[in-house]
Amino acid sequence: MTDTERWIVQQSVNERYDREVVIQDVETEIRLHIDDRELTLCPGFYWNEHGGHFVLSKTGDSRYRSMFFYRIRDRFGTGREEYDDIGDCATMLLKMQADEEVQRLAGREVSGHS
Hints:
This protein is of the alpha+beta class.
């Protein structure tokens, strides 16, 4: 990951949570193609916020994937396999998590009033 890619993701995350969030450099293991048997090591970013764990991976030149999860079984993507713009990838990931958070809070309120 380049300094520019890090800056773009850091700014998107900080804007979403309205404060500085710690983002870690990580290596991720990904199947680059659905029929791959082997996993490929890819550089990525990881952060944890609002109970969610976020992973954004670089799978090639200007190729990015992302996901978030609460528990390992509760994994969420953006509905798109890959992005060619890291800003779009980060922004969509954060939007999907924000939408999921609203649904979870609404479900908790409904079950709390029953």
